[in-house]
Structure formats: C-alpha cells, structure tokens
Amino acid sequence: MKAVILAGGLGTRIAEESDTKPKPMVEIGGRPLLWHIMKIYARHGINDFVICLGYKGYVIKEFFFNYYRHMSDMRIDLGTGDHQILNSHAEDWRITLVDTGADTMTGGRLKRAAKYLDDETFCLTYGDGLSDVDISGELEFHRRHRKLATVLAVQPPGRFGVLNLNAAHDVSSFEEKPSDEIGWINGGFFILEPAAIDYVSDDTTSWERAPLMNIARDGQLAAYQHTGFWQPCDTLRDKRELEVLWDSGKAPWRVW
Fold first, then answer.
1. What is the CATH classification number for the domain harbouring 112?
2. pLDDT-derived band of residue 179, with 50, 70 and 90 as boundaries?
3. Is residue 210 one of the residues assigned to a domain?
C-alpha cells in the first residue's frame, strides 16, 4: 500500500522558514516535518511513498538522495576517494519523487501522481500536519464502510473545512472554511480508492473543493473520527509549539 504526500505548496504563512525550503522540510527536532509524517505511516506498515513536489522540490530530492549516506557510519579514504558504508540507520522506505509543477493545486498534484499508483487503495495526506492518528484503524474503517474516500475528522480550534456527518459516519456535505461555527473538520489524512481521482479535473483543481464536495454529494465520503492529537504546522508559532512537545520527550505523534 502506498501513501501520497502533498509537498509542493508555497507555505506563505511560515515564510520565515519557507523562503529557503518547502514547508514539509521545516524541521522539528532536527528532522523535517515530512520525515515525521513518513514515520507515522511506517509505524502502520506503510513504507512506500509517493511525494508530490512543487515549490523548491529539489530540496526534498537532495535530502532523500543523500539520506542513506547521512544516516550511515562511513569510512572515507581521502587519498583515493574510496568510501565504505559501515553501518546504516536509514529506514527501509521506497520513495517516488514526482515533480507536479510549481503552481499546480492539490487535486492536480494527486492527478499527476496517479500514474505512479497501483490500482489499489492508497493513503493521501499533506506534508505539514502531525497527528497520533491510528492509520490501521482508519484503513479498517474505510474497508468496512466501502466508500471511495475516508477522511480523518478532527475537532481543533480554528476555521477549516467542515464535515457534516450522519449517524452512519458518512459525510453528507463538505464546506471549506465556513463563516459559522465549526464542527468536525478535515484532518488531512485520507484513505482513497483509485476512482476518487476521477473527481479531479486538471492542475487547477483543489482537492479540498470540488472533488471532496462532489464525493460527499455522491454519498462516497466517510469520516473516521479522531479525538487525539492533531496539529498543522502553518505558522512559526505552530513550529515552536511542536518543538516544545518534541523536546519534552512526549510528542504525541511519536508513535514509532
């Protein structure tokens, strides 16, 4: 099973960091947000990743291209240039890095990456949100409800896309950033069937708008309710809060 991670946005609300790197490369505890997200998935046996690149995508490519060596003890002969890997601490991950365009919207990025996905259920998430989500539990929930899409539903403060749920845990409608009081919101960890990608028109399509709204309209969007930890890293304040949690040794998302 594969996990698609959207990692191509500009991250303008955390410009102090994203001026020089993509937002998923903002570091918490010395490791990029992207790495933390991948560790969450790997804890549930998902080690095959498709990362959708855009803004400064070369930074992510270089990070993973050199990751094996950076995570290894090495012996180097400076006279000959020969080197030997003595002991590697790198994870057993397979990573597909896909250039999905600098200005492509989230749905468009998913559509561009579709050719690298097998014709099977897959995960989708953003490259800037951390959670102690039970991916295995969400996957089991998704299979039991037999919908095209399952979204993680969370209840943090703020204004995000609201999910209106019925007693069967189906999403009856989806509204992005409404002006009235929020309820359950889009937590950004999805389980999808390949046919869900058919709801994306082109590069200009935001996954959070027409696709999710239409999937919900067709009765094909279920919500897996999560009452545990969930926090995006949208601002410098968010980053500092996550750093404090990590430094405390009690980061809730550290499930590995």
1. 3.90.550.10
2. very low
3. yes
